[in-house]
Amino acid sequence: MNSASDVLIIGGGAVGLAIAVELRLRGVSVTLLSRDFKQAASHAAAGMLAPYAEHLDGPMLDLCLQSRALYPDWTQKLEDLTGQSTGYWPCGILSLELAIEGSSPRQRAHLPSPHSSPYLDTAAIHLAQPGLGDRVVGGWWYAEDGQVDNRALTLTLRLAAESLGVEMHEGVEVLGLEQRREQVVGVQTSAGLWRSPHYILATGAWSRALLPVPVQPRKGQMFSVTVPSGAMASATAELPLQQVLYAPGAYIVPRRDGRIVVGATSEPVGFMPGNTPAGLNELLAGAIAVYPALQHFPIQETWWGFRPATPDEMPILGPGPCDNLTLAVGHYRNGILLTPMTARLIADWVCHQQADPLLAAFSWQRFQAGAGLLPAPVPQPPSSQASPPPLNSAAMIQTATPADPISAEVPIASTSTPDPKLLIIAGRKFRSRLMTGTGKYANFDLMRRSIAASGSEIVTVAVRRVQTNAPGHEGLGEALDWKTLWMLPNTAGCKTAEEAIRVARLGREMAKLLGQEDNNFVKLEVIPDAKYLLPDPIGTLQAAEQLVKEGFAVLPYINADPLLAKRLEEAGCATVMPLGSPIGSGQGIRNAANIQIIIENASVPVVVDAGIGAPSEAAQAMEMGADALLINTAIAQAQDPVLMGHAMGLATQAGRLAYLSGRIPVKSYASASSPLTGTVTG
Ligand SMILES: Cc1cc2nc3c(=O)[nH]c(=O)nc-3n(C[C@H](O)[C@H](O)[C@H](O)COP(=O)(O)OP(=O)(O)OC[C@H]3O[C@@H](n4cnc5c(N)ncnc54)[C@H](O)[C@@H]3O)c2cc1C
Ligand SMILES: CC(=O)[C@@H](O)[C@H](O)COP(=O)(O)O
């Protein structure tokens, strides 16, 4: 076992390194473990310091402005410590407005300036920056924004950390945090167990592997060119670009050493590595439109990186869910800019347990409760009308009252960490992870009470059957309270992509008519096969691509095919919904291995849909790491649907909590529960 210093930092990107330096300067001993410096977003970034050009607002703007203000002294201090340049350059940023192709540039209206920065019209902007393309019709001059050479900065931070005596271990991967009650008691790593009094998580886009924080990778591709000597302004041998050009299609960041860095795509493709022709094409076209001379500059390098994105695009900073765990993750697009302020705030917290008021807006707990939630997430004990069989109440997990729904996520007697993560689909937040159906119920009253008992917030409705008043569906649209439930129109009954697209559009209208104006969700089912009700993968992909283009949040029902799931995710689907076994079969999870692969690779929520027959199977899917479930037949056709709804709701929660807790490994042999040594003989 390795005994670390006062503080153990996990992650050696700019954020982890800067915190290490700041803590050492305050006399704290620090160990830093990092898997791979080269994979860090800090290495891949463009290094813009752009709170204005990025159009930030609220507490995020405050944080970024304070961080930008720290940059001159902070970089000077690092340069004094190491003798190395950070490439900090307060060069200003020109944020450009482009005419839409085909429209008259003169007719293009511009947005008001967000920070009373000067707007430059067409003539002024071409004067301010010679060589701009014809499509540039104006823009804002943000004199206080600038840049730092992020690679030079991270190198300088590493040298500073080393020279200050930070114990750094590059190439060490942290595999898991060992938690006991509200304490981290150690970290399991590729180089053994480490213990420390305090831990800081600074693992960027990879944070979710260690803690269930809502951080997702958002890939960005980049390239760089070098300015050829012939392109220097001849009289002065000056570089042709002296400021950052920030445009909708691409940004262009000239470095002082003659490189020009161009970025960046923004792709929700998980951790898929590599530059792609489409990505580079997008950047090349965007950059050449802004600054045409660039098309003749030799390409120097192409690369990519993963931004750590949170649902609200703000970082997660400050105390974590354990007493001795501090979080500094999720800096998304502005982590280089936010590095000095993050280091200062985190060091204040660790050294003095002093939380700057600004930190409140960046707490991990903001994802636990609050805005955007529908109000009925708790599985409700069945009402007296449901005539439940006698239950041993002492054996039941207690649930909270409806007035306290969030606490019901955790069994009351438990000391485990509550699930900090909401289910987020297409930006909409839900507390319940169980979706339910509306078919096959004996009557609407039973349906309403079963859904309420399950705690489900998302309820799917077969658009075609409602529209045609199919048996059991007459008046179904009006039978549920859509003020408290979120409608998921589905395309059941559609055999082809074309039909499904048509029905999805009808579903959107139906949701509107029933009061959900902003509901763009559709559960996409393309099912040509009546016997097994298996979905058509090709038709599903085709329909999904079209519906995504039309602005739908598409939740496709699929066989558990990992490659198809990835293709659908790449096409922009909001979830993937692999079936456990055929619809209504009650066979449970018959394809666990493939569902596991889908879960491991998905960056969108994975909803296990269809075939679940019993609560143990619901729990099984959630224990595997599914984000949510959809269950219809097992509830609607149970002998007591209301009671079964309740059971399924609890099983979904139990499975989720078990997944978050981390189950013990399966072993071939027994291991005694009490010590084998030191026992009394006789
Ligand atoms: C293409 C691109 C352009 C960008 N441009 C800008 C910009 O212009 N301006 C700006 O301010 N920001 C920009 N960003 C965002 C910025 O780069 C990030 O927000 C910031 O670098 C995050 O820093 P970090 O230290 O938190 O994470 P990272 O730099 O990603 O570092 C995380 C480190 O943790 C390590 N790690 C992860 N898991 C483990 C584990 N289990 N065990 C051990 N080590 C682990 C990783 O190996 C990595 O070294 C850009 C990002 C990208 C990808
Ligand atoms: C209602 C619905 O969408 C079903 O088609 C879904 O697939 C659930 O399947 P089970 O009825 O097997 O739970």
Automatic annotation (TrEMBL):
* Any one annotated GO CC term: cytoplasm
Protein name according to UniProt: Thiazole synthase
Q: Which Gene3D superfamilies match?
A: Aldolase class I, D-Amino Acid Oxidase, subunit A, domain 2, FAD/NAD(P)-binding domain
Provide the primary localization: cytoplasm
Q: Which CDD domains match?
A: ThiG (cd04728)
- Can you state the subunit structure given in the record? Homotetramer. Forms heterodimers with either ThiH or ThiS.
Q: What does this protein do?
A: Catalyzes the rearrangement of 1-deoxy-D-xylulose 5-phosphate (DXP) to produce the thiazole phosphate moiety of thiamine. Sulfur is provided by the thiocarboxylate moiety of the carrier protein ThiS. In vitro, sulfur can be provided by H(2)S.
Q: Which UniProt keywords apply?
A: Cytoplasm, Oxidoreductase, Schiff base, Thiamine biosynthesis, Transferase
Per UniProt, the enzyme's principal EC class comes to: transferase
According to the lineage, what is the superkingdom?
Bacteria
Pathway assignment: Cofactor biosynthesis; thiamine diphosphate biosynthesis
Identify one Pfam family in the record.
ThiG
Give the matching InterPro entries: Aldolase_TIM (IPR013785), FAD-dep_OxRdtase (IPR006076), FAD/NAD-bd_sf (IPR036188), Gly_oxidase_ThiO (IPR012727), Thiazole_synthase_ThiG (IPR033983), ThiG (IPR008867)
Q: In this protein, which residues make up the domain named Thiazole synthase ThiG? A: 425-675
Q: Which reaction does it catalyse?
A: [ThiS sulfur-carrier protein]-C-terminal-Gly-aminoethanethioate + 2-iminoacetate + 1-deoxy-D-xylulose 5-phosphate = [ThiS sulfur-carrier protein]-C-terminal Gly-Gly + 2-[(2R,5Z)-2-carboxy-4-methylthiazol-5(2H)-ylidene]ethyl phosphate + 2 H2O + H(+); glycine + O2 + H2O = glyoxylate + H2O2 + NH4(+)
What positions does UniProt annotate as the active site of this protein?
Answer: 523 (schiff-base intermediate with dxp)
Q: Where in the cell is it found?
A: Cytoplasm
Question: Where is the FAD dependent oxidoreductase domain positioned along the sequence?
Answer: 6-349
Protein family (similarity comment): Belongs to the ThiG family.
Residue positions binding 1-deoxy-D-xylulose 5-phosphate: 584, 610-611, 632-633
Please name the GO terms of the biological process aspect recorded for this protein, alphabetically.
thiamine diphosphate biosynthetic process
MF annotations from Gene Ontology: flavin adenine dinucleotide binding; glycine oxidase activity; thiazole synthase activity
What EC number(s) does the entry state? 2.8.1.10
